[in-house]
């Protein structure tokens, strides 16, 4: 009888662990995000600079900027990098977003053709 009860407990324990693991895995997958936001810029050269700024960013698997719409699309792992950090990396190479502004001196170092109209 004791053996019987023990095996039931063991089974329940095993089930809970497997189930818990599955939930954990699903949560990790959930954390691969794709976010879209505006980055101000002008031309194809801006595109290169903006996209290159995230090339070596750990956790970023895809980054593309559209020069017509100014739309930046980034796919990243939320456990490795935050949207905030991503926007900061873009600002660090001279490009503004709605929430992160590039430093004046970095902006001024952009080639003349890339000196886009900055948002207020
Ligand atoms: Cu440009």
Structure description:
This protein has 120 residues and is of the alpha+beta class. It folds into two domains: 1-30; 32-114, Alpha-Beta Plaits, CATH 3.30.70.100. The protein is built from four helices and three strands, in the order αβαββαα. It has a three-stranded antiparallel sheet. β2 and β3 form a beta hairpin. It is elongated and about 85 Å long. The protein starts with a helix and ends in a 12-residue tail after the last helix. The model has no long low-confidence stretch (mean pLDDT 88). Bound molecules: copper (II) ion.
SSE inventory with pairings:
Elements: H1 2-30, E1 32-38, H2 44-52, E2 60-65, E3 71-77, H3 83-92, H4 104-108
Antiparallel strand pairs: 1-3, 2-3
This protein binds copper (II) ion (CU).
Concise description?
This protein has 120 residues and is of the alpha+beta class. 44% of the residues lie in helices and 17% in strands.
Number of strand elements: 3
- List the secondary-structure elements in sequence, H or E: HEHEEHH
Bound molecules: copper (II) ion
Low-confidence stretches: none
**Secondary structure tally, helices:** 4
Number of domains: 2
Give the second-level CATH assignment, the architecture of the largest domain. Answer: 2-Layer Sandwich
Q: Quickly name the level 1 CATH class of the largest domain.
A: Alpha Beta
Shape, please?
Answer: elongated
Q: CATH topology of the largest domain, anyone?
A: Alpha-Beta Plaits
Give the helix proportion (percent range): 40-55%
Biggest sheet overview? 3 strands, antiparallel
Give the structural class.
Answer: alpha+beta
The largest beta-sheet arranges its strands as 1-3-2
Mean pLDDT: 88
